[in-house]
Amino acid sequence: MEERSSSTRSSEQRDEMEMEKVLEKTVKKRSKEEEEEEEEIFNFNDKGTEKEEEEKQEEDLSDSEDSVFSGLEDSGSDSAEDEEDEEGGSDHKGAEKEDDEDRKIQIEEVEEEEEKMGAVTEEKEDEYKQDSSDEEDIRNTVGNIPMEWYKDFPHIGYNLDGKKIYKPIRNKDELDEFLDKMEDPNYWRTVHDKQTGSDIVLSDEQVALVNRLQRGQFGDVNFNEYQPQVEFFSNDVMLHPVTNRPADKRSFIPSLVEKEKVSKMVHAIKMGWIKPRRTEDASRGRYYDLWANEDSSILAKHKMHLPAPKVPLPGHQESYNPPPEYLFTDEERALWEQQDASDRKLPFVPMKFSSLRQVPAFPRFLHERFERCLDLYLCPRQRKMRVNVNPEDLIPKLPKPKDLQPFPTTQSLVYRGHSGLVRSISVSPSGQWLASGSDDGSVRFWEVRSARCMRTVQVGGAVKSIAWNPNPLVCLLAVAQDSVVLILSPPLADRQVVLSTEQLLSGQREAESTEEAGLVTWSDVEGEELSQGIRLKIQHPKAVHQVTWHAKGDYLASVMPDHSSHLQVFIHQVSRRRSQNPFRKNKGLVQCVSFHPVRPYFFVGTQRSVRIYNLVKQEMTKKLQANSKWISSMAVHPGGDHVICGSYDCRLSWFDLDLSTKPYKMLRHHKKAVRAVAYHRLYPLFASASDDGSVIVCHGTVYSDLLQNPLIVPVKVLRGHVITHDLGVLDVTFHPTQPWIFSSGADATIRLFT
Amino acid sequence: MGGIQKKKYERGSVTNYITRNKARRKLQLSLPDFRRLCILKGIYPHEPKHKKKVNKGSTAPRTFYLLKDIRFLLHEPIVGKFREYKVFVRKLKKAYGKTEWSAVERLKENKPAYKLDHIVKERYPSFIDALRDIDDALCMGFLFSTFARTGKCHVQTIQLCRRLTVEWMNYVIASRSLRKVFISIKGIYYQAEVMGQLITWLVPYQFSHDHPTDVDYRVMATFTELYTTLLGFINFRLYHSLNLLYPPKLDIKAESELKEEDDEDYAMNSESYLEKLSALSTSLARVVSTEEEEEAALDKFPDEEEDLKKMEAREMEQKQQEAQKKLFEGLKIFLNREVPRESLAFLIRCFGGEVSWDKSVCIGSAYEVTDETITHQIVDRPNIDKQYINRYYIQPQWVFDCVNAKILLPVEDYFLGVTLPPHLSPFVEEKEGDYVPPEKLKIMALQLGEKPAQEEEEEEEEEEEDDSEEEEEEEEDEEVDEKTLKKMEEQRSQGKSLPVKVTAGKVKVDNPARLEQEEKAEEKRLAIMMMKKKEKYLYDKIMFGKKRTIRETNKLTAKRKAHDDAEKSKKKKTRK
What we know:
Radius of gyration of chain B: 34 Å
Order of helices and strands of chain B: EHHHEHHHHHHHEEEHHHHEHEEEHHHHH
Oligomer: heterodimer
Distance between the termini of chain B: 102 Å
Largest interface: A-B, 86 and 106 residues
Strand content of chain B: 5-15%
């Protein structure tokens, strides 16, 4: 750096030397004013070494300075130069003509330099001496180019002689800069010239000029901006017009165009297209007592209007700090998230915050408000009458079961012994014996009071139905097993009865000449079976499902359900060993049959209805519609005027034959299929057994007065049977004299309720 | 036979209904305009009884309006205004297109505008009707006043909403008609009783809204248009019923005080006036300056005994209400800057308390934190550095709970850093069989005058219990041992002596009642079996509902119990 600085210094010194030489020669010719410049030059020379680089700090200034210079060059410098020329021309020619051109040029150059550096101080202007602007500032001949093109060279251009102008040696770093700034009083008026790479200190005048120009004033101090104006036009009417042109015609007549415009506007106003400016409606947004005079006449109009229901008020769940029981557990939360938005009980998840400042904004607030708006104008409104009923009032008032006693209430005996489900049971007319038939292929006889199995008869197949002869004078039992109906006479009666039974069985056997003789065969039993008590076998063409006796005990009906043939029911006469098929046509699948207790009527239960035939007249008297899908069982009231039907669709229908063919009452007490129904012979009771394992005993009083309808009251639900294989109670029957009931179930037991 | 053939769907219920599209065509309105008209006039669709008949045999989903309603709309002057507006928009567009700025200017000056006064009067013929329907209006007003001033709706609307809601709050303060408050996760619910009508409104928390895209702001704006009109008229009437000036003016004294301080801060006078109003700190100017407290004592009518009882009950209630109105009287409360100022100031002023806040929070603070006479300072931060001895530092929930309980609750549960007791909804009225949270029972006991000392004792007891439970457990262990011993002894001595007397006696005492009950139950069961199908259905439904409430109650109690047990065990663990 130092070396470099020294070299710059040397070059500087050389410059100075040159300058001094020149000065010596020109001093004599200089006028007074130029002495100032000399001083400046000296100043410059003194400080030239120190103040070479003021790049950055001066950069912002440099713009304005450039402009200043450009301004100066136009006005001042050229003229000065010219003046100089002139002076030089006049003086030199006179005094020293022998000076060679070389020198002259040099002088000029120096003077230019001076002028450039010191800028223009003289205000003497010689406008007419202006030459071309090309001559300006030609110390560096490179022209108006970006100076950074020379940044890699040691020089910055060429002078008029074609010699290199060397860059000043820069030895100033930040520190020097700073020191300058602090110490040099003229630092603020120092400008860096990029073209020559030298620093220039501006004189007071120059600074003043810069200030003036920056303020937008004239550069010339002496220029008067406010010269008195020469009045050209005035309010005084002159004698002569300015122009001599005569006035237009159109200045005398009204304008047609304007007229058209105006008439258009007038028309528009007339038609109401253009409205005059509306007067500001002051009443808008003003509030007053709207309800000052309420009249009730308007109220009458609004009878149909339903005010919108209010939004339901929030509960504890909505609190920001609810009791802990209202917060969701994990499962509840998962459920809530899974559910569809419309199924949710709460539209939000309850949350707990420990303090008020932690409560965030509710994200669905706007939605809820909007939904409320939609509800208000989109939802149909309806007045809905809420049923405000005390549920207790709906329960019908029935006589108390206590007052309707006797009826079976408790399970007292269980008859165990069968190994298969007990399909059918029957009580002897004396009420002492109970016979039961089971799927294990046996018929058992029980003593009712002791629950002791007195006899077991193996019949060799599942017993479908069993029926004790209702005639107390004989002791006979009909058993349906596959396609055979067995007539048993168990030795469980006194001699009188046995005798009469024998008599009945040993009656005429001649009647084998009937039409259906080929279908049904009667045969006596011999050997071991006889010793078991089996007396007769009636062979049927198909499997028999049910047997039932006439009240007199001589006739026996058997049922063979079949869709396709008319051979579904047979009526047998035991005393004459005769069988007959009463029906010529198939009227549907027969489920069960029953004899009328006193009159010659025969009830046939088909799948959906019960037909009543008069056996004497041989015609159908009535057809009862059970209103159920599939009748399972049927029982006839001992009076003969009422029938109950159980069906597989859980119903029990009570028919009053005097009333109509529709059921008088439908009872849906059971949860599952009704398997059996039964009337008590003496007491006003009936019962139904179902697959749900229960037996329901109802009180059913039948009045002799025809006008009074029967009274039906359920009195007891008896449970005891265990449901096995979805089967509960299969058969139910009352004791002939006592208010007791027997039921047999799929759990291979028979139970007695008393 | 002759005669003209009857056409289908020309008589009967069809003639009473009209579909939405037909109605729209009849009124010659576009769908948005029709919607706006329906909103303003309060016309809603109607669900016909036999939809298929009305729909002319089709089952397509359609909305039906009553024909009478639509005819009623035909004569609405606003419909004309809608059409005018449509024309205005068309003209304006045209003028813009032609760049006729003078025309644009002129058109804008003559922009058609409509008033809703007559609609309000028509929809709410009596003032009470209007009051009854004000809930939604208030909710909407409070919501709109929290909107940002840019975007979604006109600034004027927002400002108007703000003004009206502030006026409403000032009225509630002046009339002291606030009854219940509830901090929910959605916002704060307030319930006031104005002229015998219970009015509930919800104020959202002061946060900016992130405006959802699936909300139609036009619909909401139309509602707001109507609601602001309604609210304005109601406010006017209410202010006059209290002899207050409307538009509200602050008390002259207070106003002058305020002016001195804050005039530099607020450039616009009008703006600062609303600010001062919304500070809720000063009472309002009255038309008649003398303040007459009219204690409308209930006149006693000597009547039958039942009526007398009712009267007494009513009197009691009124007394209670009077007491509630003066709940915070004499308290000097200071709000820290982190608590919601507006709602708390509103509450405290509603119940006669004095309230102030930091000067930098809002205009209108009456005193500084340093005031020695402050009794309560409401703070919502875990702890506070500089505490004065002679005041309570409590959490904001105390104020809300006090209002709901109608008494000043003990402050201990609400101190700084204390786990707050649950905040219960005051709107729930438990019927018989409903679940009642234990906190509510506690408050009810307090209301009845059972001193909180008891509760403390209870707590102590609880603590003691906790202390003693361990011992108890030990004791229990001992007891268990004893029991097993006894059992063993019994087993041994079974052969020898049986405690005949005791068991026999007990059985005899218990059985008859139980038997009777069982019998009755069975009777009922049997009677239910005999019910008719229709009645059975209804009965089943009612019983199902009852069972559901019972189930829910049981579930809540079980949950609570589990929670309490867990808490206790936790406590014990920490103690150990």
